[in-house]
Amino acid sequence: HDGRSIAVMLRTYGEGAMLLLSQDVSERERNDAMRRDFVANVSHEIRTPLAALSGFVESLTTLRLDGAERDRVLELMRQQSMRMQALVDDLLTLARLEGSPRPSPDTWFSLDELIGLVISEVVGLSAGRHQLHWPGPTGLELAGIESEMHSALTNLLSNAVRYTAERGQIALGVEQLPDGGVALHVTDTGSGIAAEHLPRLTERFYRVDGSRSRATGGTGLGLSIVKHVCQRHGGELRVESEVGVGSVFSLVWPALRVRGGAEPAQLMLG
Ligand code: ADP
Description:
The protein has 270 residues and is of the alpha+beta class. The protein has eight helices and eight strands. Strands 2-4-5-7-6 form a five-stranded mixed beta sheet, with helices on one face. A hairpin with a 5-residue loop joins strand 4 (169-176) and strand 5. Helix 1 (3-13) runs antiparallel to helix 2 and helix 4 runs parallel beside helix 5. The longest helix is centred in the first third of the chain and has 48 residues, at 15-62. The chain binds adenosine-5'-diphosphate. Adenosine-5'-diphosphate (ADP) binds next to helix 5 and helix 7. Member of the two-component regulatory system PhoR/PhoB involved in the phosphate regulon genes expression. PhoR may function as a membrane-associated protein kinase that phosphorylates PhoB in response to environmental signals. Its EC number is 2.7.13.3. It is a multi-pass membrane protein. It is found in: Cell inner membrane.
């Protein structure tokens, strides 16, 4: 990767050290490349709506538009600025998630209250276009940062709404796992995702269908936010999907951060 550094190490430290350094250099190069990609992606994502906005301002100042045309241009301008706003919000969320320490394991919040809040938001997003299914009260409490969990769950449910056609089904399910953890399953009967894309879904700005994502207000950052939230709490994000059938995104919360609810034995009996 870096012939010069390796040659110096060969002379100074011998072969073992050379291997160590070459690993170090390749890791650094990978990080540098990722950073460059990220900056290029962010610039591109901001540039597109910005160029559209400048074009609209130009139209408004140079063309003699009648009232209806003017309103249409203003509406398009509103959409583009919302797109930039969503992108900046998600970038700030990611930066905060990456820069802050692991959430305390003894700050508890009610899962039922969180679900109640998320439901009201998703009902608004779906606006009657889907059949929505929710769990009954669970009595569970989770430890962590409620606003982060709220953002993770909202991201998964809004994806389900955005990638599921009208009259499709969207369900939120809560499963108590045998090890004491909890899985929140967001299931949809939407477009589904081909297997080759699954490993890359949580990469920043990775999109299976870029135009659909953008047309529905996607930033390409939602799933990387969800993954970060899970990892920071010691949990994980799992995905199963089949094209044309739908997807299940599961947010797994570790046993250490779960209390209350039914005992696993009771669940099995029930
Ligand atoms: P976006 O803002 O583009 O939705 P995400 O990070 O949330 O970004 O998701 C990454 C990509 O994964 C999306 O662009 C979409 O192609 C795919 N995806 C996410 N959720 C779903 C889903 N429920 N059904 C189908 N595809 C999905």
